């Protein structure tokens, strides 16, 4: 009976594949639209009459709002489900970019940035949705493809935005185009076959383990409106049926019930607060600290790249731009390497994260000491690959250790940590640059070494919380 029940999980793979492919398209279009606007924002706010100081303050509004809203919105997506939270973020982001297209004053510009700063978390929710749809072994491959699709959009967007800007009212045309793209994404998400898809989750490649998990009701969950409807995944031990086996304890004890969308706001807020508290009190500080250290180190690498190339090698800005575009393109293509590399490591994500962090640290050091442009080109080539793999690794480890029921909260918390890095990196870069053009990347080497040391200390203490059962046997 149990085997027959488990076999029904494989009846509708087409719906799941359609959702995954559509999410790739959403990720591509999302960053395509945003990257049309980003290079033009500083020019537009100055055209509105803002002084450099006011322009800097206005520009920081978005980052500050993202810092505080990332975890909250991610947790809210765990509460009400991916579909409605993703639709809300897309529609309110479209509203923000539409208002940006009508901004003829500083006040209206700031007003337009508020809904975008609070709700532009569509990519984070897409990643949480993908983690819901695939097994743990498939997750790095799918996340790598999603990151690649998004990166391609980020590369192509500035080209289109620059072309539109050459015409009269180009900024406003770009803004309305971006708003239209988010509306199209919202329509695409709305039409996805949410109610028809049954998702099979299989954390190992062993058929015996699969049969056992099906017997315990742990290997499957359905996605209804983007929300987990199999309550066996979120019931506490005390809520289990008499005589039944208690649900398996999730890493970090991150287990909870979901709250329907139409429940009172106070109940949704209470559930969101509970999720955030559980993540904050879990023993995951080491992963978040590694994420912060590496985020700052990578940002320091890029912080004064153009200026350093000019001062160290007398490189023209045009050539530097080509070098940056080359690195960005490699970073996008590297997303397709994540799956094969994780298979090579047999899904041993802690080891892969350690090795990618060591490689990134070494490449930053080589860049800081590079005697020629050709060595910079070489380091940029491998740097784009190592950072792409490392970013996917640390996200996957956060989901492994935190549990799939916390995916939205965990990914949102990771984005908040990265936002802290965006705040600190320019300050540290300015201070380090006072000493030398190589100061920022040299400081990045120190921070990356600290991350390597932390991983060497903490990985043996994870006791499988950041590893699969297969990894334990290695």
TrEMBL record:
Gene3D superfamilies named among the record's database cross-references: MFS general substrate transporter like domains (1.20.1250.20)
Top-rank taxon, per record: Eukaryota
GO CC, any one term: membrane
A Gene Ontology molecular function term of the record: transmembrane transporter activity
InterPro entries the UniProt entry points to: MFS, MFS_dom, MFS_trans_sf, Tet-R_TetA/multi-R_MdtG-like
Transmembrane segment boundaries: 21-41, 53-72, 84-100, 142-164, 170-192, 284-302, 322-339, 406-428, 440-459
This protein's record includes keyword Transmembrane: yes
The entry's keywords: Membrane, Transmembrane, Transmembrane helix, Transport
Membrane topology field: Multi-pass membrane protein
Domain Major facilitator superfamily (MFS) profile: 19-465
Location in the cell: Membrane
Cross-referenced Pfam families: MFS_1
First-listed, main subcellular location of the protein, grouped into a coarse class: membrane
Family, per entry: Belongs to the major facilitator superfamily.
Name this polypeptide is given: Major facilitator superfamily domain containing 9
Organism: Seriola lalandi dorsalis
């Amino acid at each position: 009976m149990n085997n027959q029940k488990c076999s029904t999980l494989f009846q509708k793979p087409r719906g799941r594949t359609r959702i995954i492919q559509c999410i790739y398209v959403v990720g591509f279009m999302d960053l395509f639209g945003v990257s049309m606007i980003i290079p033009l924002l500083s020019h537009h706010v100055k055209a509105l009459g803002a002084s450099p100081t006011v322009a800097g303050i206005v520009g920081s509004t978005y980052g500050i709002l993202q810092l505080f809203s990332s975890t909250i919105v991610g947790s809210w997506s765990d509460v009400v489900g991916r579909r409605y939270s993703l639709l809300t973020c897309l529609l309110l982001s479209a509203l923000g970019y539409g208002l940006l297209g009508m901004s003829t004053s500083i006040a209206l510009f700031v007003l337009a940035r508020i809904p975008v700063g609070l709700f532009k978390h569509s990519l984070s929710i897409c990643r949480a949705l993908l983690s819901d749809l695939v097994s743990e072994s498939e997750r790095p491959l799918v996340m790598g493809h999603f990151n690649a699709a998004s990166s391609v959009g980020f590369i192509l967007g500035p080209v289109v935005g620059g072309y539109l800007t050459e015409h009269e009212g180009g900024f406003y045309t770009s803004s309305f185009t971006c708003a239209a793209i988010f509306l199209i994404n919202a329509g695409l998400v709305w039409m996805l076959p949410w109610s028809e898809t049954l998702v099979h989750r299989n954390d190992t490649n062993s058929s015996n383990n699969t049969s056992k998990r099906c017997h315990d009701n742990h290997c499957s969950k359905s996605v209804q409106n983007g929300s987990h409807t199999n309550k066996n995944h979120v019931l506490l031990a005390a809520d289990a049926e008499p005589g039944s086996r208690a649900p398996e304890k999730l890493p970090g004890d991150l287990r909870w019930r979901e709250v329907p969308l139409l429940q009172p706001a106070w109940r949704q807020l209470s559930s969101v607060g509970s999720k955030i508290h559980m993540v904050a009190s879990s023993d995951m500080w080491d992963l978040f600290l590694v994420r912060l250290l590496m985020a700052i180190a990578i940002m320091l690498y890029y912080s004064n790249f153009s200026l350093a190339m000019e001062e160290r090698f007398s490189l023209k800005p045009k050539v530097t731009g080509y070098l940056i575009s080359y690195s960005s393109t490699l970073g996008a293509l590297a997303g397709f390497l994540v799956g094969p590399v994780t298979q090579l490591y047999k899904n041993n994500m802690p080891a892969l994260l350690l090795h990618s962090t060591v490689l990134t640290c070494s490449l930053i050091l080589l860049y800081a000491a590079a005697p020629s442009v050709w060595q910079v080109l070489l380091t940029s080539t491998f740097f784009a690959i190592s950072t792409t793999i490392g970013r996917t690794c640390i996200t996957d480890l956060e989901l492994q250790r935190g549990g799939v029921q916390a995916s939205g909260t965990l990914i949102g918390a990771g984005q908040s940590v990265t936002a802290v890095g965006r705040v600190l990196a320019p300050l540290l870069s300015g201070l380090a640059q006072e000493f030398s053009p190589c100061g920022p990347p040299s400081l990045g080497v120190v921070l990356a070494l600290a991350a390597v040391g932390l991983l060497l200390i903490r990985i043996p203490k994870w006791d499988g919380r950041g590893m699969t059962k297969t990894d334990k046997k290695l």
